[in-house]
Amino acid sequence: MNSAGKKRKLEDDLEAGETMLQQNSAAGSEKNPVVADSSGKNKEPGDLKNPELVKVQPSSSWRKPIAELQNGVDLSQKTVVGKVVKKSDLHTYETKDKQKRFFFYLGIADDSACIKVMVYRMDKYSFFEEGECYNFRNVIVKENMIKFTMNSSTSKFCKDKLDVPKELELKARMLIYGQDSAVCSEEIKRLDEKKRVSVEGTVTELQSAALQKDQIEIIGIKETGKLRTKLDVAIDGQFKVLSVKSAVLAEALGIQQGSNFEDRVLEKIPCLARAEIKGDTILTFTV
Length: 287
Hints:
alpha+beta
């Protein structure tokens, strides 16, 4: 082959190689597309995160949305995730053998609906907190209500991963109140004269309450602090929330204050005590 033929063959080979490189590059782009973010920089698809993936999905295989709950539904393999919007006070009932038992209600909601939960476990009263989210497992759905029994279990769930609409929170609150949700004082002025409303507020002054001595039964803890502790108590079959100085409570129960103060109190209750009460405050008491 002369020099002119060799030069022509070399040019043809170079042109064929360039075409093959362009085809391979195009195929690679289809398999691994490059995406530009708002800053103009290229990013691989794996670097982009869908914000919805951090939310709990209604179609999750382990979860049953509240909107799909029906009487008699089998929840042995499913979990209900709900936000505790409102918690009731403790209530009491008698068993067939005349034993006194306690229960309470929760108004919970998820991103689909709301429902009332009847909890037969007094030991869970301090565990459930308003505004927090929980898993409800092995529960019974009956009479359009969730029954949380001794066989049921629960655990805390990240509330940032459950987006509950405000209107569902209001409905869940009304399940416990049994009446219209609370309104502010300014809104009352614009309502009809005979419209029924609920109001939440802080009492700044009342008539001085009389000192009374009663036998009480301490059955739960609302909240604990270094200075004061709020207790759930039963007085003559009625339930009240009373406040007491934490130091007075510790001395009466024979325990020490400290980082595990709440746990030490829980170990001592329920218990009976003789107390001096003024208003909603326990002044002194002996166990």
